[in-house]
Amino acid sequence: MKGTASGPAERSAVVREGFERHRFGWLDALPWLCVVLWFVLAPGYLPLGTQVIVMIIFTLSLDLALGYGGIETLGHAALFGLGAYGAGLYALHVSSEPISGLAAAALAGALAALLTGALILRTRGLTLVMLTLAVATLVAELASTWKSLTGGDDGLTGYQIAPLLGLFGFDLAGRTAYWYAAAALAVLFLVSRWLVNSPFGLTVRGIRDNPVRMRMMGVQVTRRLVMLYAISGAIAGVAGGLTAQVTKLVGLDVLGLGLSANVLIMLIIGGPGRLYGAFLGAAVFVILSDRAAAINPFHWLFALGLVLILVVRFAPSGLLGAAERAVAHALRRRA
Amino acid sequence: MTGHALEVIGVSKSFGALQVSKNLSLSLERGARHAIIGPNGAGKTTFVHLVSGLLRPTKGTIRLDGHDVTAASPERRVAHGLVRTFQISSLFPKLTVAQHVGLALSARYGYDAKPWGELSDRTELMNEAAQILDSVGLLKHAATRVASMAYGLRRLIEVAIALALRPKVLLLDEPAAGLPSGDRAALLELLLRLPRDMAVLVIEHDMSLVFRFAERISVLVEGAILLEGTPADVRSDPRVRTVYLGTRAHG
């Protein structure tokens, strides 16, 4: 059985074809174009835009854990919330400088993920869902009880955030906050993209699809998942930290089950395992919630429920998954 | 030194009151070509799980290359040079053939936790992947996703993954299961070309494959080893005829 390709160089080239190559295309500019257009066309809605961006970051963190690593979690808000409290407490007790505050938030999220992940990531499926839920509930209870630290039901307030880089104050219209969040998203998106395309990214996708087979290749599955979960926790922490810094208030809802469920819905709507699904899902969810609540303050959840049902029924791999299929179909018909 | 690549010494396994493996002993020299045969329910799969670490023995010792791995995790055993394949192809449907070999190679090279760069930028890894895929005849399928591949080709991916891990001991769990006869011939040819320094233990139903491949054969019946010997010994043993080959088997 001698090969078809002659030299080793040609053979390697054939093998390279079997790996996805990751180069930026024109489509990669689209989300950033939207960020700029929003700023220009909807200057009155910058706080909403900031909220969209923060939720994209949070959904991105869940996409790494769940979409790429298969870590089923219903407690992701714990990592977001600890990031929020981390940034709030840092501003209150250490420094009002925002970027180091985000680092503190990332650290809080990563440490929480590292500590809990080492305990719970040996399990999978429903057991893991229950354990993540339990961890999140414990954290929320702790925050609610430890009033001297967190302010309990009243929330954590009374801290200031210094101007960004000492130059740009956080204005009432939310212009600084908007660009600050967008910059954080750009950095974290690049980090995530880099990560999922790396050998480690391929490893965690392998673990997601077939953990036993990965163990039989000598991969330390639990350790790799804990590492992924910690990175996801850092990014979720930054999302929480941004919320704390921009709204200057940390309430108990940042740790709630509602938020864990919402971020899952955002990822499902957008489409897991593709990074950009987080962009689309979070944007659709946050904007739709805001508009629907403005139109009908009593029954706005109905619209969201309907979207979720339609997506799950007709686009099980999310809106982005459906779009990818449609494009592939159109290309095949043209060819 | 010509030590043993794999030693299984007095291994037993019980699930509650049910004893599925009884005092099994087996040793493989370096470069051995050994087969385990036995009727359905003889405990062949349990044996594979015990050796590969998915099950822990109730009693006994397992040594890999001189190291006691009786209590070691499957990952540790891979590090000591034991690699197994799966009876029912256990692959990654969404990944391409090249990515399968890439996963195995990156685990062996210690790249599996590397959070930067891309595997396809690693020239030495790509060269080795190409050489492995070429040797199993899968090079032209390098960019094909496994979900769309024929069953016979998937069996070859199992072998390619195993080769990428450079085992000292290769455990093949029914490599020919479900293969049409043409593919079986190709598989046998591939198995006969496996590196000679690798000890190979094959668990298989296909008698013609076993008798052409193995230099020694152990017959497993009801969880215990009935006999071990050369293919000629096994073929001529009357007990084997009755319990396994059936009376209609003639030489």
Descriptive report:
The complex is a heterodimer of chains A (335) and B (251). With 335 residues, chain A is mainly α. Chain A has helices spanning 8-16, 30-41, 46-68, 76-93, 98-120, 125-145, 147-150, 175-197, 199-209, 211-215, 221-247, 257-270, 276-295, 300-314, 318-334. Helices cover 72% and strands 0% of the residues of chain A. By secondary structure, chain B is α/β, with parallel strands linked by helices. Chain B has a six-stranded mixed β-sheet with strand order 6-7-8-3-9-10, sandwiched between helices. In chain B, strands 2-1-4-5 form a four-stranded antiparallel β-sheet, with helices on one face. In chain B, helix 3 (97-109) crosses helix 4. Chain B is globular. At the A-B interface, helix 1, helix 8, helix 9, helix 10 and helix 11 of A face helix 2, helix 3 and helix 4 of B.
Brief description of this entry?
The complex is a heterodimer of chains A (335) and B (251). Chain A is an all-alpha fold and 335 residues long. Chain A has helices at residues 8-16, 30-41, 46-68, 76-93, 98-120, 125-145, 147-150, 175-197, 199-209, 211-215, 221-247, 257-270, 276-295, 300-314, 318-334.
Strand content of chain B: 15-25%
Q: What is the 3D shape of chain A?
A: globular
What is the element string of chain A, with H for helices and E for strands? HHHHHHHHHHHHHHH
The biggest sheet of chain B amounts to: 6 strands, mixed
Structural class of chain A: mainly alpha
Strand order of the largest sheet of chain B: 6-7-8-3-9-10
Number of strands of chain B: 10
List keywords for this structure.
heterodimer; A: 335 residues; mainly alpha; 15 helices; globular; B: 251 residues; alpha/beta; four-stranded antiparallel sheet; 9 helices; 10 strands; 25% strand
